[in-house]
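A common beginner's mistake is to predict each chain separately and then try to dock the pieces by hand. The better habit, illustrated here, is to supply every component at once so that their relative placement is modeled jointly.
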Amino acid sequence: MKPIRKAVFPVAGMGTRFLPATKSVPKEMLPLVDRPLIQYAIDEAREAGIEEFIFVSAAGKGALEDYFDTAAALEMSLKAKGKTDALKALEPTRMPEGALTIVRQRQALGLGHAVRQARHLVGDEAFAVLLPDDVIMSRKGVLAQMVDAHARVGGHMVATMDVPRPAVASYGVLDVENQKGRVLQARGMVEKPRPDVAPSTQAVVGRYILQPSVFETLANIGPGAGGELQLTDAINADASSAGLSGFQFDGERFDCGSIQGFVQATAAFALARSDLSTDFSAFIEARAEPQKISA
Ligand code: G1P
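With all components supplied together, the output reads:
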């Protein structure tokens, strides 16, 4: 099987839940501690062996493009001042020549429509999709975990986690046939089902390894849940011929598309940082104490 070399990052979303911050800052640039959301997704993709990064972007996302460009004046000034730590902090923002391609999604017609914009750049090979809103804290990056599992099973593969039944209405949900270790063989998947009719409680998290045949189905599906062109529907339509599995990843996922998830991720990543954790956990404990007493 050929290695997975290309990844698509849908970054066209307006981020309305984070207004007013996102009035002038793309939501993918909001920082968790000191790194923007997009950096977490890029790092995870790199760890998994991705070499070509395709952003499906939109108007008003210029800061995202600049972030992965060289900042000649800034770098010269840091060099002149001997600020080697600050220069080192810029390293993850460097992209090899030609590694980043940006396409525009001109209309917000859904995730399936966004991924479809990358068709000519992906071509005829299996590829990854990472939704930067889903930030996952793990020892080994989730996409790298999936690449290993995918080498054994092939087909389409989506990351999944078990959620309480009422929560399935917010996710793509897998119709599970059987389970072998972390891999769930699936018949299909459905976008945002009603909890009482959902085929399982295995919810899709924003990491996918997809066969290029998905572009055929993406070209043919109509609007689905929420009136949008859903990636889930295209994968589902292709599941019986290409194969579909879920991968129960090892890691803790934060929904950074919501304020609650974003704030929790900020705290979790700060607590995981050796330079911040001692003071920060003392601060959190002191804040939590009065609530304990009143509870
Ligand atoms: C998207 C997908 C959904 C998936 C979710 C994971 O939904 O359509 O299948 O479960 O991401 O975060 P959204 O959150 O954009 O509504």
